[in-house]
Amino acid sequence: MDSCWIFCLLFALFIGVFNGAEGQSLASARMAQSISSERGAKVNPPRGVDETQFAKIGEIDQFIAIRGEDRRNPVILFLHGGPADAQSPFLQEFVPWERDFTIVNWDQRGSGKTYGKNGPATPGMDTPVAALDRLTTDAIEVAEYASQKLEKRKIILVGHSWGAILGLNVVKRRPDLFYAFVATGLPVSWKQSLEDSETWARREAVSSHDESTLKALDEAASLRFDDMRRISASAKYRMTETDLAYLKMQQTAIGPDAPAKGDSADWVAGGAFTLPKILPVVFSFDARTMGTDFSLPIFVLQGRDDHVASFAEAQKYEGEIRAPRKALVPISGGHFACFTNSKEFVEALRSNLLPLVDGVGRK
Predict the structure, then answer these.
(1) What is the mean predicted confidence (pLDDT) over 357-361?
(2) Could you say which DSSP state residue 357 is in?
């Protein structure tokens, strides 16, 4: 597996994790098989919805998938992470969500099928600032599109990782569109998350007498927070076993080698196109600079063992924000807990969100 493919697959935030985790166990591989095989892919009930389309969003065609068992259910717009971790190849991962919610997945500008449709001429992403503004506006248009199409007064916004950063920008601009915002894998501050990851990695390396990791951490300590050598130094211990299994599932779905054409090729190419444009936003992000007052309910559903986006920092941030309703809900798992522990995640969505939705979620 070449370094470019690793870079695209792990979205730079997790650089080198497969190389670093040389001891990735057979259990991880088995979990990866379980993640993909235990999910169904069909929506059968008569009230179900299973649609894919390109819609005109921000003056370009963008890919949107809508799935759920009952179109009367509350609608979730999911903002994928990455950047560029488009979910169109992995829609089966949302099946556990689809009994209680209708899920709208959108391949963001510069990602996945949307990148495949528009290619390297994709407009609006010339600089990191322009890209963030354009993607925020796009997300608002997708929310309006979904609300109109599914005949909902409001919907729920869920953002994972980079998608949580994007989601905070969206709800600051248009809170009126949403019943609530749910952040998961929330990187409150890249600087603090990296420091917490390094502290964790050092503790694990000392425990396992891992001299090479300790040396790498020492050598990288004076580097900038956006230097890939520093990010890589703590990568070996950043992911949980379930995170590794999830990434293995993605790797298997996309293919072991960089594909030449098709949806997988677009997914990889979208990563190469988008990462340099969005990573500066991620690396400089601190949620507190946006203000801590919100006019809609905010929920943080964070994996207890998330060492990519610091759990401790997410816990602290939730305590600082002011919103009509808020909660930090710890769930078992790491950075991808919303997928690897979907049972606990969906139960947290149900208990916290359904009481907020008109008509017990039916309007």
Answers:
(1) 65
(2) S
pTM: 0.91
Q: Which of 69, 294, 49 is nearest to 150 (CA)?
A: 49
Neighbours of 362 (CB within 10 A): 11
CA distances from 124 to 54, 109, 167 (A): 18, 9, 18
Question: Tens digit of pLDDT for each residue in 335-356?
Answer: 999 999 999 999 999 999 999 9
For 240-272, how does the pLDDT look when each residue is reduced to its tens digit (9 = 90+)? 999 999 999 999 988 877 677 899 999 999 999
Contact 144, 298 (CB under 8 A): no
CB atoms within 10 A of CB 289: 9
Q: Cα(69)–Cα(339) distance, rounded to whole angstroms?
A: 18
**Is the pLDDT confidence value at 2 over 50?**
no
Question: Rounded CA gap, 56 and 157, in Å?
Answer: 20
98 touches 346 (CB < 8 A):
no
Structure tokens at 173: 């601009």
Residue 3 scores a pLDDT above 50: no
Give the pLDDT confidence of 190-211 residue by residue, as tens digits: 999 999 999 999 999 999 999 9
Residues 153-166: b if buried by 16+ CB within 10 A, e if exposed:
ebbbbbbbbbbbbb
- Let me know if 121 is exposed, middle or buried by CB neighbors in 10 A (0-12, 13-18, 19+): exposed
- Separation of alpha carbons 49 and 43, rounded Å: 7
Q: What value, to the nearest 5°, has the Cα angle with vertex 210 and ends 208 and 211? A: 145
- Domains of the chain by start residue, with CATH: 36-189+283-358 (3.40.50.1820)
Contacts of 203 (CB under 8 A, 6+ apart): none
Query: Strand 178-184's sheet: what is its strand order?
Result: 49-57, 60-68, 102-106, 75-79, 155-160, 178-184, 298-303, 326-331
